[in-house]
C-alpha cells in the first residue's frame, strides 16, 4: 500500500472521529485543525553566461496545509498534517504545479514522535536554519545531495535526553518489497545537540536516492549574530565518481528590522566544480511578512550553468 497516497483518506477519517475521541475528557480541547500557508514570490533577473538575460516571476515553494492534534489516553496525541506546494504565479490549477510536501499521520507522547507518510529525512533536517536562502536559487539543495523528502517513510524522533541531545531515525519503504529491505536498505538517522546558543548535529543517509551521506553541521547565535557551517560527504551507487564533498558557511546579522545575510558554498555532488555565493537583506515587516532582496552567483566547471541572479521578493505566512 502506498502510504503517502492514502494520507488524505486517513486525515479525513481522523477528522470525522474527533467527537468520539474527545468524549470523556475532563476539559474541552480545541480539536479544530489549523489551516496554514506561505506565499513566497520573487521577481528575478537571470544573467546566464551564454544566454540573454531573462526576467521572471517565481513562486518559491509557496504552500498550503492543514495540521492538528487529537488527544488520546495516557498522554498520547494523534497528530496529522497534509501540505501541498502551490504556484499562484501560474494563474490556474495544474496538477503538475501542485506537489505534496511534508504530509503524515502519527503519534506523539512521552516516548517521542512516530510518523508515517512523506517527510524530510533526519539528515536533511539536521541542517536546521543554516541555509539562509532556503527555497531560493541559493538554496543549498542546488549543490549538496542530502536534501530529500521521500515517500512512504516511517519517521521516529526521540524526546530530549542527556541534557540537550535528540535522535531521529527514518526507514523508507517506497520501492522496496520485503520488510527486511524496508528496515535496513534505505535509512536516514541523525543526532543533534543544543545548549544555549550553540547547536550541532550529525546526519547519516544509507542509500537515499542512491546516495550514502555523512552530514555535519554547527550553528552559533550571539545577540543579533548567527553563524553556521555545514560539511557533507556523499558517495553515489549510481555512478563511479567516488566520494564527493560539499561545504557551506553562512552568517546573518539583524539591525532593527533589517536582516543582513551572506552564504557561500562549494560542492562536486550535483555538478563538478560547483560554487555558489549569495548575499541578501530582509526587511521584517512583522512576524508574518517580509520584503527581501538578494543576489546569487552560481559557477561550475561546465560554464553553461553559470548564472548571476538578482531578485526582490515578498513573503507572507499565515
Description:
The protein is mostly beta strands and 318 residues long. It has a single domain (38-317), classed as Porin (Beta Barrel), CATH 2.40.160. Helices cover 9% and strands 53% of the residues. A 16-stranded antiparallel barrel has the order 1-3-4-6-7-8-9-10-11-12-13-14-15-16-17-18. A hairpin with a 5-residue loop joins strand 3 (63-71) and strand 4 (77-85). The radius of gyration is 21 Å and the shape is globular. The protein starts with a helix and ends with a strand. Residues 8-28 have low confidence and may be disordered.
Draw up the topology in text.
Elements: H1 3-16, H2 18-22, E1 34-48, E2 54-59, E3 63-71, E4 77-85, E5 99-100, E6 103-109, E7 112-118, H3 122-125, E8 153-157, E9 165-172, H4 179-184, E10 187-195, E11 198-208, E12 211-222, E13 225-236, E14 243-255, E15 258-267, E16 274-284, E17 289-299, E18 307-317
Antiparallel strand pairs: 1-2, 1-3, 1-18, 3-4, 4-5, 4-6, 6-7, 7-8, 8-9, 9-10, 10-11, 11-12, 12-13, 13-14, 14-15, 15-16, 16-17, 17-18
Amino acid at each position: 500500500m502506498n502510504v503517502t497516497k492514502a494520507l488524505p483518506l486517513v486525515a479525513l477519517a481522523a477528522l470525522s472521529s474527533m467527537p468520539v475521541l474527545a468524549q470523556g475528557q475532563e476539559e474541552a480541547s480545541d480539536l479544530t485543525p489549523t489551516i496554514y500557508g506561505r506565499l513566497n514570490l520573487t521577481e528575478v533577473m537571470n544573467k546566464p553566461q551564454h544566454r540573454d538575460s531573462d526576467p521572471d516571476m517565481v513562486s518559491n515553494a509557496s504552500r498550503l496545509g492543514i495540521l492538528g492534534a487529537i488527544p488520546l489516553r495516557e498522554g498520547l496525541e494523534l497528530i496529522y498534517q497534509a501540505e501541498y506546494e502551490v504556484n499562484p504565479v501560474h494563474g490556474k490549477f495544474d496538477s503538475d504545479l501542485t506537489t505534496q510536501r511534508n504530509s503524515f499521520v502519527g503519534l506523539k507522547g512521552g516516548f517521542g514522535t512516530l510518523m508515517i507518510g512523506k517527510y524530510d529525512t533526519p539528515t536533511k533536517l539536521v541542517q536546521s536554519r543554516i541555509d539562509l536562502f532556503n527555497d531560493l536559487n541559493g538554496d543549498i539543495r542546488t549543490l549538496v545531495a542530502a536534501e530529500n523528502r521521500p515517500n512512504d517513510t516511517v519517521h521516529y524522533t526521540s524526546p530530549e535526553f542527556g541534557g540537550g541531545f535528540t535522535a531521529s531515525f527514518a526507514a523508507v519503504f517506497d520501492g522496496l518489497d520485503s520488510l527486511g529491505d524496508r528496515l535496513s536498505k534505505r535509512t536516514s538517522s541523525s543526532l543533534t545537540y543544543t545548549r544555549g546558543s550553540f547547536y550541532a548535529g550529525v546526519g547519516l543517509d544509507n542509500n537515499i536516492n542512491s546516495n550514502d551521506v555523512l552530514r555535519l553541521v554547527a550553528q552559533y547565535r550571539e545577540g543579533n549574530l548567527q553563524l553556521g557551517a555545514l560539511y557533507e560527504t556523499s558517495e553515489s551507487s549510481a555512478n563511479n565518481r567516488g566520494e564527493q564533498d560539499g561545504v557551506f558557511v553562512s552568517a546573518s546579522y539583524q539591525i532593527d528590522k533589517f536582516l543582513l545575510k551572506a552564504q557561500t558554498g562549494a560542492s562536486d555532488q550535483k555538478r563538478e566544480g560547483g560554487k555558489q555565493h549569495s548575499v541578501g537583506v530582509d526587511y521584517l515587516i512583522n512576524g508574518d511578512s517580509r520584503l527581501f532582496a538578494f543576489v546569487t552567483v552560481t559557477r561550475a566547471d561546465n560554464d553553461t550553468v553559470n548564472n548571476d541572479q538578482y531578485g526582490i521578493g515578498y513573503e507572507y505566512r499565515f
